[in-house]
Amino acid sequence: MSAISKLIDSIIDMPGEFADVAAQGPAEGLLLAFGALFVVVPSLALGYLALGAGIDLLTPSKIEIQHP
């Protein structure tokens, strides 16, 4: 089995494993939710900033120097 197929299999199995952990009790579910929140929110913020930087890099500047 190659590393790529192992990675794909683990990604497919991941939701079931998380559901098993979250179903153990309310504390585990809460910890799982906060863990997901602490990973997803910064990832979205980084993606937003990277997208903005890429767009800024590709668009021309609108600032023009005017001489008196």
UniProtKB/TrEMBL annotation:
Sequence intervals crossing the membrane: 30-51
Alphabetical UniProt keywords: Membrane, Transmembrane, Transmembrane helix
Source taxonomy: Archaea, Methanobacteriati, Methanobacteriota, Stenosarchaea group, Halobacteria
Organism of origin: Halovenus salina
Record Pfam families: DUF8024
Protein name in the entry: Uncharacterized protein
